[in-house]
Amino acid sequence: IPTIASTCAACSAVSVVYDENHQFVRIHELKNAPRHIIFMPDILVNAPPSFLHAGIGDAISKPIEINFSGKHKDWSYPNQLGKTMAENALKILIEQGESAYEANCVQHVNASFINVISAIIMGIGYASILVEEDYNSALAHALYNAFMAMDTVKQYPHGLVVAYGVLVQCL
Fold this sequence. Notes:
Blueprint: E1 14-18, E2 24-29, H1 41-44, H2 49-69, H3 77-105, H4 111-130, H5 139-147, H6 151-154, H7 158-169
Antiparallel strand pairs: 1-2
Helix pairs in contact: 2-3, 2-4, 2-7, 3-4, 5-7
């Protein structure tokens, strides 16, 4: 049961582990993705909005990285399905992200909040599971991994650093 919507980790076999001060500690890989995910908007809306902000930042990277990594490759059906899911999630994030963030700021669950947390956790999470491993990340996440060696960057949430990587990747 996720308590924050800062990544799709609740749905993924890869989790980013932070300490009690929200500082990056390590990446933990599970043998399999969870079979069931229960997320409760009433719990997630009580998390600080900075976590939702980071979740949106992380989630916008997935369709961009899938498209970049899949360029000039054959698209199997699972890859196409994952790509479509990620692109649909991106559309929701762009159209409803601001409304969801504002709702989170006043701890109010509305349709946009539910759609955005669903896009982050389920849409992006399932897209990550469906696409081949080679399609799952590109420059944005590579920069994140490199930046984690820098103490000055470790203070920033995963999603914000990845969002910066998306900007660099899109140049």
